[in-house]
Automatic annotation (TrEMBL):
Localization annotation: Membrane
Membrane topology classification: Multi-pass membrane protein
Predominant cellular place of this UniProt entry's protein: membrane
Protein family membership: Belongs to the autoinducer-2 exporter (AI-2E) (TC 2.A.86) family.
Protein name: Permease
One cellular-component annotation, GO: membrane
Superkingdom, natural source: Bacteria
Membrane-spanning intervals of the chain: 12-29, 67-88, 140-162, 198-219, 225-251, 263-284, 296-329
InterPro entries reported for this sequence: AI-2E-like
Keywords linked to the UniProt accession: Coiled coil, Membrane, Transmembrane, Transmembrane helix
Coiled coil: 326-353
UniProt source species: Spirosoma radiotolerans
Amino acid sequence: MTTIYTPQQQRILLITSLIIIAGFIIYGLSGYISAFLGAGILYVVFRPWFTALALKRHWNRSLVTALLIVFSIVVIIMPFLTLSLLLIDRIQYYSQHTEDILNLAKKAEELTGYQITSQQNIQAILRQGGTYASRLLPSLAGGALDFIVILGLMFFTLYFMFVQQETFQKGLQKYLPFKHDTQKELGESLKNNVNANVLGQALVSLVQGVLTGATLWIFGVPDALFWGTVAFFMAFIPVLGTPLVWGPAGLIQLSQGNTSQGIGILVVGVVVIINIDNLLRIMLAKRMGDIHPLVTLAGIVLGVPIFGILGLVVGPLLVSYFIVLIQVFERENKKQEKEVAIAQERVEKEAELKK
């Protein structure tokens, strides 16, 4: 049976059809992209455990995967969801009850002699902050069905990534438009980012959050548990981190006339919490992924507005992938230039021999 299209036209139409269909699929799944990103992150985190149990000890793959999913729900999802809901609840409370924040602003103005901003601006900022936090962090009240669907899709994807691991890896190697060495570099970059920004950073953030909460509780700051939770999330941000919590807390104590408490909070923050942060980062850097703080900071600024809380990992990963691809592009150009130079030199020698 004849066709009106030439082979070249058929190829172009095939590629165009693939792009259009892929666009519809991506658009349709855009609301659940966090599920696939979360599955990829959990896959990298739990892959060593799966390898040790399912591949080396020959345990049943489905059983091992089910155990890893239950473990992630109990140890990661539930505590993180609890912390997120606690944080959202308090932020929304302060955004609706702005009197305490306004009183603190007045005391700070009286202490410094400068007007910080108008009361209307402070109220607007607090309301926007409550809305922004609710959007970034998972909230059952804000969309229980979507949250359950995302979790289900994430664990469903994770299950088949482990149970059919060889097929999954072969598919990536086959369809990714990169050479084997480049794929290896990208995989190593993914591993380093997940280790540094999930495992390592979560450990550092947990220690800093506990220390900050304990310090505020010892020096009599109200809602020490809440502010310790805030410190846990803030600690993911390099450089700034927990000083954004214990710094204002110390200054507020000073503005209220509690000199010893304020000085105590600031001294513990500078001497203990910051040094513990630096010490832990140095100890974990080489072991759990050596990612430059500037890459992490730029990635968080890029990723959080786009991907929400997962942007803490996805953002730095995108920046790292960009750097890796730039390096690959530079290496391939140098290799091509060298091949062209060798070929040109060969042509010149052949021309000289003919003479």
